[in-house]
Amino acid sequence: MKIYTKTGDKGTTSLIYGQRVAKNDLRVEAYGTCDETNSMIGLALSHLFNENFQGKEIIDTIYHKIQTNLFHVGAELATPKGKEVKWTLVTSDIDDMEKQIDAWNELLPELTNFILPGGHPAGAAFHVARTTARRAERCAVSLGEEVNPLVLAYLNRLSDLLFVTARYVNHELGLKEQTLHERRS
Fold first, then answer.
1. Among 1, 9, 25, 93, which residue's beta carbon has the most beta carbons within 10 A?
2. Dist CA 125 CA 159 (whole Å)
3. Looking at residue 23, what DSSP letter applies?
C-alpha cells in the first residue's frame, strides 16, 4: 500500500464511501481531532513505559480499548449522512469509562480549586489529550443532528476520564498538584 495517493493535493479528501469534501470540512475537522486525541493518548502512554507503579497495567488496558474506540468514533464521523455506519459505540463503552473515573477519583484528594495542567510528562500529556478531546466534542456538536448521541457522550466522558487519569498518574508518581493560587518553587 502506498502512503501517498496525491488525491488530496488540491485540498480535498474522501469520506467513507468515497464522497470528496474539502479538508477544512467540519466533518474532517471532527474526525481529525479524534485522531489528534488518539495520538496524544499514545504519547501519554509512552511516558509511562519506564515508570513502575501499580496502576500502569490497567491504564494500558483501558486506553488500548479507548484508542480502538476513537478509531470507531472517527469512522462514524467520516461516514456521510444517510450511509451505513460500519463501527458503532455501545452504551457500555461509556459506562466502563464512568466506572473507572469513579474508581480513580476515590483514590485522589478532593478538588477544592482549579488545578494547573502539568506534573509528570505522562500526566501533562493526558491533560493535553483532554483538551483535544474537548475540541473533538465541540467539532462533533457543530455537525448537529448528523452525529450519533453516543459519539457526543463518549467524547464528553473521555475528556473527564483523561482529566482523572492525569490526576491519578501524577498522584501515583508522587507529584503534588498545583492550584491557581499556589506558586511553583
1. 93
2. 13
3. T
